[in-house]
Amino acid sequence: MSVPREQHGLRMFGTLALAVGLTQLPWSGWALWLRPDFLAVAVLFWVLHRPDRMGFGTAFCLGLLADFQDGTVFGQHAVAYVVAVYGVLFLRLRLLQFDPLRQAAQMFPVFLVVQLTVLLVGWLAVQPPNGLTILLPVLTSTLLWLGLAGWQRAWRGKGMRGAE
Amino acid sequence: MAVPGQLTFARRLGPTARLAAWLAIGIVCVVLDVRYQAMEGLRSGLATALQPLRIALRAPGDVAGDLVGFFTRHRLLQQERDALLDERESLRMTANTARDLKKENDELRALLALPARPGQQQVRAGLLYQGQNWFGQKIMLDRGASAGLRTGLPVVDASGLLGQLTRVYPGTSEVTLITSPGQLTPVMVERTGQRGLVAGVGHGQLELRYMPAQTDVRVGDRLVTSGIDRVYPAALPVARVIRVSRPQAGPYLRVDGLPLAGLERSRAARVLVAQPVAATPPLKPAAGAQPAATQLAGPQP
Fold first, then answer.
1. ipTM of the prediction
2. pLDDT at residue B6, rounded to an integer
3. Does A120 touch chain B (CB under 8 A)?
4. C-beta atoms of A74 and B42 within 8 A
């Protein structure tokens, strides 16, 4: 933290530009499948170490850039990066105490969530399955829960907490 | 307050609220892009803005390539030259035959009073990079609208059809590969002339759809573009049939194919810029064939 503020900004910009550039290299075949999401790694690194400089807004814009690069629907990576930033902010204090191995292990689910979010948003955007009726069970499940909770309360008087 | 690292009386929005806000903006982006195609301006802006960065990043690779090329051994070059000369001889013979056939074809077309096919103009383009996307395989080329490209044009390499331009920016363009899911290509079986539709299924494979069960399709058949769609010129090689099976349910054959073009390997591509059919004056060979046709047709009535 002894590094001046401008230098930090420069370094941050440099790594982000490097991440964008690495993605632009002509990857193909196996290398393309194995290519890490450089931009996500860079964004999450700076969220972890400089949460005051790197936040939701920057992550969102860089996500749009990633969408442009992969020729995907605008918003796919943006949404995924925003979710990942939230995850890292949530885990931040714990992550900072970990050694590199544990830190990487803790980041695995975050990167998994990034990829799954990209997949989910793309799937919903490109091939909306039957006009999103697939989301109706969410509503009906909630209503069922309401009924269940009401019934349980009526049965036991004050609910589980009171019964313990 | 439950989130560690957050001040109890912070004046800014909490992470959860900000997450929700950005998620909402993200969903708006997706809807704008998918439903209203409103983000194309942003795309072409990004393409222009990223062009210098792209050139700068490719410079070391290009220089290294030049150096390696410079130090390539003399003997290798000689061998290559001999092979190329040999190939040129054989190609020249093929070209002679082709010219003869084209002339004959033009005369026959004139006889039948069929319109001449529009000539093809080619734009060479290099592969910039390949996008990674679950919903379609795409590659980026280093030529764009400034080289006269527009969306919908077919892209080929030396061995066959690669795909179709789906987005064109000022200096770059995006190709949807024929193996991309949902990408349809009208083809015909070269051996029989049977027409059909090839659809990409991903994983670098293609599927010939809606072939009735009694159709004559065999493993090893070449599929070429049929040319009836006004997008692809006729007889571009598309795929080779690798598997033909008859599913228990359904009246259609299941025909799988592999693309002939090097979708994963090609580093250079050509975009076929067809001259607009309506605006072109009659092509030279056709004009030359016209008198011959009238001459031939003259004594008939």
1. 0.74
2. 55
3. no
4. yes
